[in-house]
């Protein structure tokens, strides 16, 4: 037994959570992020948390890391120079793309089409062809291919993608091209579409594989450097990286396929929220993760997060499984401004980030942010991180005064307006994952976390009608907790387009078994025995003739001769839920998928000391705050002093090391057995 460490790198802070695998005891730490090199903050945090816990770093057994390094490479446009090899006739595949233009009415007039991640001048063609059933129609012209690769070498590319037509059915030609490319490009990473995404739709497959090549050198360098430094500090620790779909993968897999960690950071928070809420007895959730730079929201039903087949980062949308997280540029560091043209208050998406940060941080920031507004309204203490990071109330007020002058109102009203607008922005994101997906948010609890989430959670619960609002212990490091409590995951998929009249349940079962073997083998290579694995399946389906698919989860109990009938029934029910109708049309299979997961970590939730309803022993101060348009006295509670069964009537503030919770008037927070704050309206 040893210690598991979860590490989550955010735009403002890097969060760490250390778990004793034997006792379940936890230790937490937050350090400012280092955007120039995120590993610096990670290593500083490891030194800090092991020192605080009096733990020898050599006792660390596993380090689970949620990272934004691949995401940032895309957002900042700082990925590799990618070369692309395609089948003859498909050189413009990335330029042609799909005929979809984002935006509202007349959006096409002003929409600047993003530049492809692999330029046309770095794209070469191969004279070859495989048909849709995997039969070789035209063998590779080796001499012509070598000539083209030699020409591409003069372009100083940093990564190479090979994506040939119909390689999802037969990877023979991609492997042949790769063998020759390795001779000519011995020092750069090569990504094959048949390995990264063995599925139909050549554009999506090519784009996803190019994206993998684009982030691969930077991600690999970061992971290798971190692993090397970690090896010096904690030689016995195994480093695992969080996948976009909420699972873990080993270092080698992450370095080869970093496209699967584009949403690594937000996935950790959702995993942690599911674990915490299940202890409190809730399985249908809306997760609300508000940090310093952005807010991530997701929907969880029956303790299972919704996993989508697309991942979007900025203008890039690729085919890779990820938890269906929606992100808005609304965080504690979001900057408020009044445009000269409209004279209407706006908040975000620009952020003060970690450096210099909000004015209240006292690091030279001067622009008004959401954090500054919360400070002016009296919701924040005089310092964060147990007093290690002081807050400057005068600087926060000074930053908001020009905003108030531009609006012609007092500073408190301007600050209240900033909070109302950022709440509306986050309300819109929560509607995207609930109402617009056919779910009633009133059927879901709202789990709030992140450094800023608990400050806004009560207001969001009221807007959504989502009760109760659950604020877990240590909400500011819940993403790190999710990293530390998730498990290894592997996925194997295959395009299998068959109408139901063309295939039998037994044939589909044989295909699923083949995929299971592949997925299980990858986990075995990472040290997880087959006996410790849990296998799941899903099938992408559509009506024959449709141009899109719906993913249907396949319960192991469905793996019988009735498989096709049962999956068709589930598909039609889901189609009707999503689109309000079903068709009298034959069902069709598109993709089959097997998911292997390792054993769940044995981490027990610690119960807190039991008390009665009176929480007065946890009161540390009383202060005047500005809430709902007027000033009112509010008690401040130290969360560490709260006991199970305590009740906290609003308005009130609950303070702790990594976050602050605001309970609004007309609401009450109850402390459950595990220390969660359960907020409900007072009836």
Automatic annotation (TrEMBL):
Pfam families recorded: Hydant_A_C (PF19278), Hydant_A_N (PF05378), Hydantoinase_A (PF01968)
GO cellular component: cytosol
GO molecular function, one term: 5-oxoprolinase (ATP-hydrolyzing) activity
Domain Hydantoinase/oxoprolinase N-terminal: 4-184
Domain called Acetophenone carboxylase-like C-terminal: residue spans: 507-674
Aminoacyl-tRNA synthetase among keywords: no
EC nos: 6.4.1.8
PANTHER family with a match to the protein in the record: 5-OXOPROLINASE RELATED (PTHR11365), HYPOTHETICAL 5-OXOPROLINASE (EUROFUNG)-RELATED (PTHR11365:SF23)
Protein name: Acetophenone carboxylase gamma subunit
Organism field: Ferrimicrobium acidiphilum DSM 19497
């Amino acid at each position: 037994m040893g210690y598991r460490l979860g590490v989550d790198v955010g735009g403002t802070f890097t969060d760490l959570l250390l778990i004793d695998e034997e006792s379940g005891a936890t230790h937490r730490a937050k350090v400012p992020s280092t955007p120039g090199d995120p590993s610096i903050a990670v290593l500083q945090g490891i030194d800090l948390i092991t020192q605080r816990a009096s733990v020898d770093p050599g006792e660390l057994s596993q380090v689970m890391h949620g990272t934004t390094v691949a995401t940032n490479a895309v957002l900042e446009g700082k990925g590799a120079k990618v070369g692309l090899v395609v089948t003859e006739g498909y050189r413009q595949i990335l330029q042609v793309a799909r005929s979809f233009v984002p935006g509202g009415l007349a959006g096409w007039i002003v929409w600047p089409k993003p530049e492809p991640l692999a330029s046309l001048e770095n794209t070469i063609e191969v004279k070859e062809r495989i048909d849709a059933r995997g039969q070789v129609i035209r063998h590779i012209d080796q001499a012509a291919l070598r000539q083209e690769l030699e020409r591409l070498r003069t372009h100083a590319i940093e990564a190479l993608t090979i994506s040939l037509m119909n390689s999802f059915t037969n990877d023979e030609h991609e492997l042949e091209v790769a063998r020759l490319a390795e001779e000519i490009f011995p020092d750069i990473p090569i990504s094959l579409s048949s390995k990264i995404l063995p599925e139909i739709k050549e554009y999506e497959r090519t784009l996803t594989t190019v994206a993998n090549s684009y982030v691969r050198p930077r991600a690999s360098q970061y992971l290798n450097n971190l692993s090397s430094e970690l090896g010096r500090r904690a030689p016995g620790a195994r480093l695992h990286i969080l996948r976009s779909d909420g699972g873990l993968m080993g270092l080698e897999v992450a370095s080869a396929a970093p496209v699967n960690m584009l949403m690594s950071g937000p996935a950790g928070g959702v995993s942690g929220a599911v674990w915490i809420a299940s202890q409190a007895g809730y399985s249908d959730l809306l997760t609300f993760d508000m940090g310093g730079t952005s807010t991530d929201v997701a929907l969880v039903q029956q303790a299972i997060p919704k996993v989508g087949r697309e991942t979007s980062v900025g203008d890039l949308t690729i085919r890779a499984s990820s938890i269906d997280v929606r992100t808005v540029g609304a965080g504690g560091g979001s900057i408020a401004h009044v445009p000269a043209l409209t004279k209407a208050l706006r908040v975000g998406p620009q952020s003060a980030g970690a450096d210099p940060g909000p004015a209240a941080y006292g690091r030279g920031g001067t622009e008004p942010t959401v954090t500054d507004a919360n400070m002016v309204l009296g919701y924040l203490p005089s310092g964060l991180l147990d007093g290690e990071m002081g807050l400057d109330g005068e600087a926060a007020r000074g930053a908001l005064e020009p905003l108030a002058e531009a609006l012609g109102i007092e500073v408190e009203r301007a600050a209240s307006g900033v909070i109302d607008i950022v709440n509306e922005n986050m309300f819109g994101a929560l509607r995207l994952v609930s109402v617009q997906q056919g779910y009633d948010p009133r059927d879901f609890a709202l789990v709030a976390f992140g450094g800023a989430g608990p400050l806004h959670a009560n207001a969001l619960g009221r807007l959504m009608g989502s009760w109760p609002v659950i604020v877990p212990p240590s909400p500011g490091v819940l993403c790190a907790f999710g990293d530390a409590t998730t498990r290894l995951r592997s996925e194997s998929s295959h395009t299998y387009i068959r109408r139901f009249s063309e295939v039998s349940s037994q044939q589909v079962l044989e295909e699923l078994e083949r995929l299971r073997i592949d997925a299980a083998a990858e986990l075995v290579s990472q040290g997880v025995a087959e006996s410790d694995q849990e296998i799941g399946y899903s099938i992408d389906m559509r009506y024959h003739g449709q141009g899109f698919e719906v993913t249907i989860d396949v319960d192991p109990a469905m793996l019988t001769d009735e498989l096709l009938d049962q999956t068709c029934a589930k598909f039609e029910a889901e189609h009707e839920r999503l689109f309000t109708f079903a068709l009298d049309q034959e069902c069709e299979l598109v993709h089959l998928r097997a998911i292997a997961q390792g054993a769940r970590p044995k981490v027990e939730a610690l119960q807190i000391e039991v008390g009665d309803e009176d929480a007065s022993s946890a009161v540390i101060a009383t202060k005047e705050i500005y809430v709902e348009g007027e000033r009112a006295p509010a008690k401040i509670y130290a969360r560490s002093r709260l006991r199970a069964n305590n009740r906290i009537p609003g308005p009130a503030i609950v303070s702790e090391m990594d976050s602050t919770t605001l309970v609004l008037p007309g609401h009450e927070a109850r402390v459950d057995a595990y220390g969660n704050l359960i907020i409900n309206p007072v009836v």
